[in-house]
Structures are given as C-alpha cells and as structure tokens.
Specification:
Layout (H helix, E strand, L loop, with lengths): L10 H10 L4 H19 L2 E4 L1 H17 L11 E5 L37 H8 L3 E6 L33 H8 L5 E6 L5 H7 L2 E4 L19 E6 L2 H11 L29 E5 L9 H16 L3 E5 L7 H16 L17 H12 L2 H14 L4 H25 L2 E5 L15 H5 L6 H6 L3 E9 L2 E9 L4 H15 L12
Parallel strand pairs: 2-3, 2-4, 7-8, 7-9
Antiparallel strand pairs: 1-3, 4-6, 5-6, 5-10, 9-11, 10-11
Bound molecules: glutamine.
Length: 502
C-alpha cells in the first residue's frame, strides 16, 4: 500500500485494507470528516454535510465486512460526495422533512432550502454498491461555468493554490477529492465540467458516453449534453465507480439498453497495437506552453508503450464553442422555465402571478444563468430559430460526423483537457468569452456524445495538467485502458496538493 494518508489513497488500495481488516470504514469516514473539518470551510467545497448518517452507514459497512457479506458490493464502506446537482431524498411521501435528508440547491439561490421527495438514480446505484454519502458539493449555478465562481454560495478554492479556481462546474467535487475530503465524487459534464476541473485539480475525471449513465434525478441544464460521471484519484477508481453507475434505467428515456462491460478487466496495462489519434486543431492558440509540453510528453509516453500515434484532423473543432453556446443555452432556457416561484424553492411572494414570476426569477437567478436564459430564448425565438438553433444543430451533426470518421481509423483520440492550468480567482469573471474558451477542448466531445477522460500528465508552474482521452461511443473500456496504461507508466498517480497546515 502507498505511504499516503488514508483519505489520499485510491479506492482500490483502501478497499483492500478494508477487506484485510487493516482499517475500517469508520476510520476512513472519520479521516475524511476530519479533512472536511480542517479544509471544507476555507476551500468552500461542501454545501451540505451529513456526518452522523455517514458514520452510521460506515458502522453498518464494517459490520457487513466483518460478517463477510459484503460480496458483490464493489464500493462497500467507501465515502463519497455528490455534486449538488443530484437530488437526494429529503422528504417522505407526505412532504415532511426526513431526518438527515440533504437539501438540493444546484448552486442557486432559487433552490435554497429545496428538499427533494426522491433520490437520483446515481445515488441509488452507489448506495446499492455500498458507498457512503458524506455530503453535497459546491458547484456553478445550474452547472453553468468553468471556474466555480458562479455558485450563489461563493467560489471554491483550488487546494493546489487557494488563490486559484478549481475549474468548474464540478469544482467542489474535484477539490473535495483532491484534498481527501472524499475518496471519490460525482460530477456532471455538459461541456467539460467533469474533465476540466479534474485537469485543474490533478484528479481523474470521466464523462461517459451520452446514454451510458442515467440522468434521472440530475437537475437538468442542457438535456442533450448532460451526463454524469466520477472524479477520483486513479483511472482504476474511475472504472470501478463507472461500473457501479452504468446501465440502462427505464426512468431516463435517453439511457441506452446496451451491455456494460467489465471495466476493470479492460485495464490490461497494454496499449501495443492501438492506434491513437492526435488532432492538430486541439493545440489551439492561447494554449499555455507548459500545458502543451506536458500533453505532448504524455503522447510520447504512450508511443513509448507501443501505441501507434497518428496525426489526425477534426476541422470543425473551432466551431464547437459557437455551436455549444447556442444549443446549451437554448435547452437551458426551456429547462429553467420550471423555476417559477410556485413549484420549487424560492418564491418572491408577490400577490400577482406575473409579478411573482419576474421577481422570483429576477432575484433567484445569478447573472450567468440570466445570460444563458436570454441567449437561449433569443436563439429559439420565431425570427431566429432557423438562423441560429437549426444551424447549430447542423454543425453539431458535422462535428459528430468528423469524430466518427476519425474514430474509424484510430481506437481513441489524445488531446489536452484544458488549454491552461488553474487561473486566479476573479481573473476571467468579467470576460465571458475568455471563460467559455476554457472548454474549447472538452465541449466538442459532449456535442458528439462521446466518452472522455482527463488523467493527470504532470505539472506546469506547479499546477496540474490533464491529458484527455476520447473514445468511440460506448467504448469507455478502451478509453479507460489507454488512460490506465498511461497513468501506470507516467508516474503522476501519487500527485496530491500540499494542504495548508491547520
Ligand atoms: N463551462 C461550460 C458551461 O459553462 C460547461 C459546463 C458544464 O459542463 N456543466 O456551460
């Protein structure tokens, strides 16, 4: 076992220690809660914590481990966190608050105090696998952002350098894992929100193929792009969690009924014979030299392992941003119409209905959300629908076709995850376009619905850089295999931030 403290170890290592009796789930959970005590407030990682329920669940896991009846539960006794985009059951059938039930805010004032009457599929599946929910993590409001500065509950700080952002929108999840406040966390990724914060915090984060994991119980941002996935310390851990999450769910009509392979079995450590494409358009202007050299060194590591590296072209890559910023806001404007001050959370309490809508939405939504709703309604309005929305859908088809074409000739694609390392808090808040450019390398993958992972490939200026591996639809196995082989060879698996002394 690695010499790292308990909460910094991988699930794989800790699960072994739990089985052998070397540690207990209670000890592990307490170690994470202690990290939360020391760092959560300063880093602003959590919006809600359920310490007592987590300790109780840990004791139950320990009892099961002792009895030896934990078999088949792949995450038994492992503490994790959920981005506050996933609903967690917090009321009974009569609408009465359940003790220990956690609120769901989506990082928005408009949902402050909202308690869900049902749980998300993701939470149910992780619970069935024995994982222990420790709390809900901070995020950009309705998952709109790349820096976690759009949360109504304040920004998250990157544990690598607390004056910088952890990325977004799953920044709370990424920072919580990076600082050992949970062994893994779930994020959601509409345009890069799992992979980009993973890149900026030195963690591994994966967005599965659209349809691979149920979206049931995820607060919707852009429904044709949203997909949830894990952030963890290693590729193997991500494979383990994905195995627990993946599979058909009749409650999500876009979830696909296709067999889920054994992702751990895919981690052979072998990439010999694989063809890996490097798209020239992904080394974009504005990319930091330190990021480029770390990513290119990552490509060379894979070449050294016997993969065949192929130069490929995805010519419509630079259309991705414009396409995304029509489609995502259009869908968001429709999805967010439900926050009307009547059904959920905040209500301005005005006497007249329209007045109440306007005041609730005017005070409940933050600036970025309002910007998206305006962009989206504009793009969908009668005079502009064909010029913007229909055009964006056409370009979407083109982007997908280019990926499909390239992926018939190569087994996976290698690219940077983010063009920069973590930037200073406040540096881009007044320049939406500069902020949007953070996702230039990730959002085409959502547009095409493909699986992508970010794995640490070193440091630049002392801050983590991520290598992105993109695969064919429903071929998470190859993506994980490449990322795992890279991780084993590259020697960055034990990278952890030096946490402030307390
Ligand atoms: N940063 C992108 C946006 O603001 C992507 C967000 C996400 O993936 N949820 O829309």
């Amino acid at each position: 076992m690695s010499g790292l403290p308990l909460p910094d170890r991988t699930i794989t290592e800790v699960a072994e220690a739990l089985r052998s009796g070397e540690t207990t789930s209670r000890e592990l959970t307490d170690a994470c809660l202690e990290r939360i005590d020391h760092h959560a407030e300063r880093l602003n990682t959590f919006l809600a914590i359920e310490a007592d329920a987590a300790r109780r669940a840990a004791d139950e896991a320990d009892a099961a481990l002792k009895r030896g009846d934990g078999d088949g539960r792949s995450l038994l006794g492992i503490p994790y966190a959920l981005k506050d985009i996933f609903v967690t059951r917090a009321t009974d059938e009569e609408g009465q608050a359940l003790p220990g039930g956690l609120p769901t805010t989506a990082g928005s004032r408009i949902l402050a105090g909202f308690r869900s009457p049902y749980a998300s599929s993701a939470q149910e599946r992780l619970e069935a696998a024995g994982a222990i929910l420790i709390g809900k993590t901070n995020c950009d409001e309705f998952a709109m952002g790349s820096s976690n500065e759009n949360s109504a509950f304040g920004p998250v700080h990157n544990p690598w350098d607390e004056t910088t952002v952890p990325g977004g929108s799953s920044g709370g999840s990424a920072a919580a894992v990076a600082s050992g406040q949970a062994l893994f966390a779930l994020g959601t990724d509409t345009g890069g929100s799992i992979r980009q914060p993973a890149s900026l915090t030195g963690t591994v984060g994966m967005k599965p193929t659209y349809g691979r994991v149920s979206r049931y119980g995820m607060v919707a941002f852009a429904s044709s792009l949203d997909q949830c996935g894990p952030l963890a310390h290693s590729v193997r851990d991500v494979a383990l969690v994905l195995g627990a999450l993946a599979g058909h769910d009749p409650r999500d009509s876009t979830s696909v009924d296709t067999p889920v392979p054994d992702y751990l079995a895919a981690l052979t450590g072998e990439v010999r014979g694989l063809r890996l494409g490097v798209p020239r358009e992904y080394f974009v202007a504005g990319m930091e030299p330190g990021v480029e050299s770390a990513v290119r060194a990552g490509v060379e590591t894979l070449r050294g392992l016997g993969a065949e590296i192929v130069d490929v072209s995805l010519p419509s890559t630079d259309r991705g941003l414009a396409t995304y910023y029509i489609i995502a806001p259009a869908e968001a404007s429709a999805n967010l119409a439900r926050y009307d001050g009547v059904r959920y959370g905040l209500s301005a309490g005005a006497d007249e209905l329209w007045d109440n809508y306007e005041r609730t939405r005017g005070t409940g939504f933050g600036d970025e959300v309002k910007r998206r709703v305006m962009l989206g309604t504009y793009a969908l309005s009668a005079g502009y629908y064909d010029a913007y929305y229909v055009k964006a859908q056409q370009v979407r088809t083109l982007i997908k076709a280019e990926f499909d074409d390239v992926l018939t000739g190569v087994d996976a694609i290698l690219a940077p995850t983010s063009p920069t390392v973590a930037f200073k808090i406040g540096a881009k808040v007044d320049d939406p376009l500069a902020m949007y450019l953070n996702d230039a390398c990730t959002l085409p993958v959502n547009i095409a619905g493909l699986p992508g992972i970010s794995v640490p490939c070193g440091l630049s200026d002392g801050l983590p850089v991520g290598l992105q591996v993109i695969g064919r639809a429903f071929d998470e196995a190859t993506v994980l295999r490449v990322a795992d082989a890279y991780e084993r060879a590259a020697g960055f698996a034990d990278l952890r931030p030096a946490l402030a002394a307390v």
